[in-house]
Amino acid sequence: MYFLSGWPKRLLCPLESLEQPLRIQTDPQRAFFAVLSPSQLSIWYCRPSVLIVSYKELAKAASQFGPYKEAEWRPDSTMIAVSTANGYILFFEIPSERDKYLYEPMYPKGSPHLKGTLHYKEEQCAPSLNLEVKKVLDLQASITSLQSTLEDLLVATADGFLHLVHWDGMTNGRKAINLCTVPFSVDLQSSRAGSFLGFEDVYIRDMEYCATLDGFAVVFNDGRVGFITPMSSRFTAEQLHGVWAQDVIDGTCVAVNNKYRLMAFGCANGSVQVYTIDTTTGAMQFSHKLELTPKQYPDIWNKTGPVKLIRWSPDSCVVMVTWECGGLSLWSVFGAQLICTLGGDFAYQSDGAKKDPLKINSMTWGSEGYHLWVIDGISPSNMKPERDGSNEARQFGILQFHFIKSALTVNPCMSNQEQVLLQGEDRLYLNCGDATQAQSPRNTSAHSEHKPTRERGPFSDGSLDSQGLSTLLGHRHWHVVQIHSTYLESNWPIRFSAIDKLGQNVAVVGKFGFAHYSLLTKKWKLFGNITQEQNMMVTGGLAWWNDFIVLACYNLNDHQEELRIYLRTSNLDNAFAHITKVQADTLLLSVFRDIVILFRADCSICLYSIERSLNPTASIQVLQEVSMSRYIPHPFLVVSVTLTSVRTETGITLKMPQQACEAESIMLNLAGQLIMLQRDRSGPQIRDKDNNPNQRKHLPFCAPVVLAQSVENVWTTCRINKQKRHLLEALWLSCGGAGMKVWLPLFPRDHRKPHSFLSRRIMLPFHINIYPLAVLFEDALVLGAVNDTVLYDCLYTQTSAREHLEVLFPFSIVERTSQIYLHHILRQLLVRNLGEQALLLAHSCATLPYFPHVLELMLHEVLEEEATSREPIPDPLLPTVAKFITEFPLFLQTVVHCARKTEYALWNYLFAAVGNPKDLFEECLMAQDLDTAASYLIILQNMEVPAVSRQHATLLFNTALEQGKWDLCRHMIRFLKAIGSGETETPPATPTTQEPSSSSGFEFFRHRSISLSQSAENLHSKFNLTKTLSMPSGPSGKRWSKDSDCAENMYIDMMLWRHARRLLEEIKLKDLGCFAAQLGFELIGWLCKERARAARVDDFVFALKKLHKDFLWPFPVIPASSINSPFKNGKYKTAGIFFTPVLT
Question: Where is the sequence biased in composition, kind Polar residues (predicted)?
Fold first, then answer.
């Protein structure tokens, strides 16, 4: 979602003042930010970060007012209200000097930059501002909180009053409300029956206004939290009513999220409690909690101190939290942790020394969430700024953190793509790799967290591209596209971005206009007419439709909302665009096949059909309009809207799979609540065969149905694949800290009639270890990104360490990642006794190269949970999972791989469910899978007495000798010697964690570690075993020591002699030579012993023919003239063929 990038920057201040900044606050448009010091107010420009104006309070006035405490901007950025310690409010007016600008950029002569174009000075130059004290208001009480509304300034004081002050006409507009007269209750249904605060000294410590809830979230000084809302338009004590959050008694601060209607309350125990308002009762309803867990942060999770500050990002998608003891943490809107500076390289230096966490006094987000401005908590005594060499500027106590974010945060129509697209303030990050090689819409790259490709080795199947499996062959680096500097100069910041389905073209939207880039030609395309660019402002996002860019914009010239389509291959000009006027402001835009869906400010949804016309553009026609004003309280609450082919059980028809490509339903994310509007097919329209085929698009929609809560992102696809209908017709949801959910369709097997009690869809929750940014539907993969850090503190000496941010902070980078989710879905289906559906889904994905890893993950996770459970499990799942895995030919490999990666203490529980390991070993031998049998032999060695292990090892050794598996034979020799090297007739001690199984299954012996719980005698024997097994092996190595008279060696010798004797008796000299060379068999000495037994040749003719056949030697050809000429001694004469004896 949001990711930290690079190092933070520290601002340089040109002023002489040594006052440490206390507060920082951006204006509502986030073009400026105010910096507050004890007696000084400064206004800075955001880009570039330069000081514009500063106001210094005189000494006499400073003693009267007291130090500055807080600052609040007027919504139109024309005034600032500053509260002081002695109860005064100073109203500063910010007049701008017309046609006067600061820090004007200088370009060389002949530069093609936009000098003299429309809005040039406004966009590229910092304006000249003044600060003037317009009014001073004395409230005669200490001010605890300031909050700006549209027309008023709300002020809370320590005497328990709430003051409403108008920005204009302040003297006549002042109102004071005693909090003790405001009734509070659990919900609004008990209205006037609510109790009062009842204490003389209760006052508001912190508050924030929520426009979409029309009220104030408040934190009182005694730790209680609540929500105050006016019961009518009048803001008086009689019209106010409050509701409590009953479970919070240690509140410290609050921040509200207008888009999701959430209130985040910081608590003294270090957690953040997030609440919303129940629309039915008006009560405060708990949503979720943000807290550090001891599993992730065992050293610091309960030592953070109280929550100090909470700040939501401008797009309301993430929240930043900081504590009294220091540290920053970033969370998604519903509780998925993204970043925390209390662990890893943020908390420890490269030498392992612990750092002091960064303490934050104040922080605020910059434009579009690309920057976070932070005032660190370094005390003035420790902060001794020094002039640099030029004596022009000094280090200031303000840090600027840089972020890049997913395009889904601002352009949710990207959820139907399979590429990951991140946007920064001046560049894009793509995961699609080299576009010249990406010729299919599924050719993306990802780095798998579980590295499933290593299970199968290098891919050689030619069908990989058709299955999109190239996603597993990528690297962890991004394809970075630098946004054109000419476009950025006049249109910073970047607000929207989109990528096409092929991953070959991207488009970006700044303040005005848009630009697009081709990854094939590596060229940007900008508007040729700058006036056209500056006259359009994209409002509802943009999307790709084939080679066209579809966007909703506002025409500044005509003051008209428009829907425009531009062809990528044409010049970027309005003459080549198709423009359609729209009635209301467009807030969201999405494309489904050949349909464009718009959500407008009047809470209506409009569907358009789009088709390519003969001229170089496309045409648009209105299909249908749907009013949603009955269900949507505020249009700003709609997070995303998309058209899908997803249907409920009333719409699924197994005999008509072609309906999967039709627009069946509208999915609308309303403040985290996913609402579905499905087409109503119960009328006569679907039975009328004479209707126009397009008539289906005009079918009405049913009443909305709520599918899920706490939804952040939604993924669906319009593709069709009959083999993977489960995955392609499913709906995928990201739910923050609750993980992911999938709304999976259920199909009868072999098109049989479904059971009446079986639903056609089911919602399955599951957790993954990454934050999802894209879903590869057919590949069963989730793509994401993760922050990583690199330390560079070793480059600096200890004396200069304090001066470098490179020492205080690691360098942050963003890496691509992915994760398999199929095993989670299979497990959830098995839990719900839907084994048949799980089997259908698994068989459809059995061709994936990491499918064996999927089965192994499912078995391992269920085993770990059930075998280590402290409570008895009434209905264990492991037997069901074991029975499910037996349906696949990889059952034996899956079980042994899982056992090899599991602790020995859990083996009995595992094999009680999957079967006796001796039986599984025999099954491997019958299936001629010797490598898997070798792995089972290790299991038997640890679970059975040595006699049993020797018996099964002998069977495997003989089979390996027969099949010529020489590597396995060498391992077996060492294994048999290890069994006879002093081990008792009892199972060995519990082994420690083992390495993953290798191809032969015996690399475990080379690196097996020693358990600390073993006795000294066992340790001694284990060391002897390790020494024995470290003997060199190979064709040139000695098989065993010649002077060894161990009985185990004799037993091995007998097996080797028996095999060699059989090869010699069958006249397989080539196999005998390979056998001797590979195992170091002393062939010459053994042949001497066997010269009168197995080495004796009785039938020379048969032996010679066998020899020629074995080595592929040709028989000698005798000339025809020599057929009748006998040998000198005729006893060797035969019927026309003569042989020379070669064996003696």
Answer: 436-446
Q: Enter the tokens of residue 496.
A: 């929207």
807 or 294, greater pLDDT: 294
SS3 labels along 942-961: HHCCHHHHHHHHHHHHHHHH
CB 469 within 8 A of CB 452: no
Write out pLDDT tens, residues 1084-1134.
878 887 777 777 777 888 888 888 888 888 888 777 655 555 544 444 444
pLDDT, position 396 = 66
Confidence class of residue 1012 from pLDDT cuts 50, 70 and 90? very low
The model's pLDDT over 761-796, given as tens digits with 9 standing for 90+, comes to: 899 999 999 999 999 988 899 999 999 999 887 766
* Rounded Cα–Cα distance for residues 645 and 641 (Å): 14
Instruction: Give residue 447's identity as a one-letter amino acid code.
Output: H
For 832, residues 6+ apart whose C-beta sits below 8 A from its C-beta are 762
Q: pLDDT band at 259, cuts 50/70/90?
A: very high
Burial of 1097 (0-12, 13-18, 19+ CB in 10 A): exposed
- Whole-angstrom Cα distance, residue 18 to residue 129? 23
Residues 6+ apart with CB under 8 A from 502: 435, 438, 439, 440, 441
- Buried b / exposed e over 964-992, threshold 16 CB at 10 Å, is ebbbbbbbbbbbbbbbbbebeeebbbebe
Closest CA to 331 of 298, 295, 363, 288: 288
Q: Are strands 88-93 and 96-102 parallel, antiparallel or unpaired?
A: unpaired
Which among 1124, 1099, 1111 has a CA at the least distance from the CA of 1137?
1124
CA-CA-CA-CA dihedral for 335, 337, 338, 343, to nearest 10: 160
User: Among 167-171, 402-406, 1129-1133, which is the least confidently predicted range?
Assistant: 1129-1133
Q: What are the structure tokens assigned to 361, written together? A: 């006094």
CA–CA dist 1002, 1029 (Å, integer): 11
What confidence tens digit (pLDDT) does each residue in 303-319 have?
889 999 999 999 999 99
Phi, psi of 1111 (to 5 degrees): -100, 5
Return the closest-CA partner of residue 418 out of 448, 453, 445, 396: 445
Which 8-state DSSP code applies to residue 1115? P
- Tracing tokens 């080679």 back to the chain, one arrives at 547
DSSP string, 628-669: -TTT-S-GGGEEEEEEE----TTT--TT-GGGGGS--EEEEE
Contact yes or no for 11/25 (Cβ under 8 A):
no
Residue 833 phi, psi (nearest 5): 60, 35
